Amino acid sequence: MIDDKVAGVIDSEHTRKHFFNHRHLKILNTIAALCASQMQLAMAEEQKKKAEIELLQNKQKALESRLQSLRLQMNPHFLFNALNSVQQMILANEEMVATKYLSRFSKLLRAILVHSDKEAITLKEELEILNLYVELESIRFKGTFSYRIVCDDSIDVDEVKVPTLLIQPFVENAIWHGLMHKEVDRQLLISFEEKEEWLHCIVEDNGVGRQKAKEIKGIVANGSSHQSKGIAVSTERLKAMKNKTGAEGSIAFTDLMDKAGNAAGTRVAIDFPIQT
Amino acid sequence: MLKVLLIDDEERATDALRLMIEKTVPAIQQVMVCNDPRKAADIITAYQPALVFLDIQMPHLNGFELMEKIPNKNFKIIFTTAYNEYAIQAIRFSAFDYLLKPIDVEELQGCVQRFLENNEDYQQQYALLKNIIHNIQAPSPSEFRLALPTKAGVHFLVPAEIIRCESLGNYTKFFMENGRTYLISKTLGEYDVLLTPHHFIRTHKSHLVNKRFIAFIDHDGFAVLKDSSKVEVSRRRKDEVMQSLK
Q1: Do B178 and B121 sit in the same domain of this protein?
Q2: For residue A225, what pLDDT is reported?
Q3: Within this chain, do residues A97 and A57 fall inside the same structural domain, yes or no?
Q4: Which pLDDT belongs to residue A181?
Q5: Which has the closest alpha carbon to B88: B153, B32, B144?
Q6: Could you read off the pLDDT of B228-243 as tens digits, one per residue?
Q7: Could you report the predicted ipTM of this complex, rounded to two decimals?
Q8: Which of A9, A10, A169, B18 is the most exposed place for a label (fewest CB within 10 A)?
Q9: Among candidate residues B137, B167, B201, the one where a domain is terminated
Q10: Segment 7-26 of chain B within 8 Å of chain A by CB
Q11: How far is residue A79 from each of residues A74, B82, B84, B101, measured CA to CA in Å?
């Protein structure tokens, strides 16, 4: 018997009738009890092993999804292009530029590594990451676009929390697909405002507009879907952010037009309830 | 006199490659740079480079689109890219030269050396380029075509129709579903890397087999294929092979 359940039966027969007596029964009983306890031990051990394996598997899964989110947050294409510009600076003997670029790059990489496993960081930290990212891209493109990152003074950037790297994919998209296809006067604006417990973020470029950018993307779209993935992840995360009344965070794209009705850039408005 | 043209929208990228060539590849005497892919066609016509280093992802026109626009491609193309796994797979399936940024000096020198030693067949290059574009535009990598360049011409194979590959020294022999065979002067290891994601398994150091064609493993430990050929399975790989058949 194990845990009040019959685990096995010892069946004994002998050619002679009434051969088995009480002593036999006692011995058999002892053997059965010993077997039962051994079986119990083995079963317990097996269960323990199973639990351990499951725990390890769960840990692995958690690690994988964290790595996945890190990879999504930081476009490898950006990483290698950044390293490539460092190589150029070294070859061109631009020691000071290379030194500055490399230290900014390390700061950004460190911030991403430190924050990647957090669901949310303070607005101050997010602003720092955005600043570093945009500055690095600006150096890489030799200052061919100008940018402003503004945050309303009334916001307590140390207290307000934002989902980690929520805004970065939109900024990347604005630079790579909005501004880089434009010839001159490339401008990028990122702003944060607070209104009645909601944070309003604007990412605006004066680039070629979404329609044109889509046409240009053309046949390597398959390989460059990273940005759209990043944006999809950010959209999912925004939807999950609800305030007490159940209102969700949202994203709105606006195609900007000049007076003549030509495409004049893209504005992305990202709104979500403030969390502290 | 060896003339090369570098095409990349990013000034720092062409600058890096130009400086690296000037410092480490004496065989190249002239380097011309183009940062606007829309002007590249005219520059190629006027400048007549022997070698073109071409970035893949560029605004306005990507590297593939640009090459489609140029009629006489009597120059060797070497693709450069920082990161684009999909495009790199498509390129490798076409046995085309490419360099990853930041560029490794030795790989650059290797590319140039190969160009100098071999007589480039630009007709073959054109067929391979078309194959890259076919692969890039394929809805999924399962429709990629594998290019096998030979002296007589290029063969394009669909991985799903390859039964197995066998190593013969520095050569690899391909056995097709339709009974054809091809002997290619590349090692099996190179195809192992390419075909493993396409349901192939290395059963033995000399054999790379399409899992879909394995019928069963016989008592002697050989893999019996659907064309009734027998392929050796090494003792160490047996478990993995059995596992993959489930």
Answers
A1: no
A2: 59
A3: no
A4: 87
A5: B144
A6: 999 999 988 888 888 8
A7: 0.81
A8: A9
A9: B137
A10: 9-13, 15-16, 19-20, 23
A11: 8, 8, 12, 10
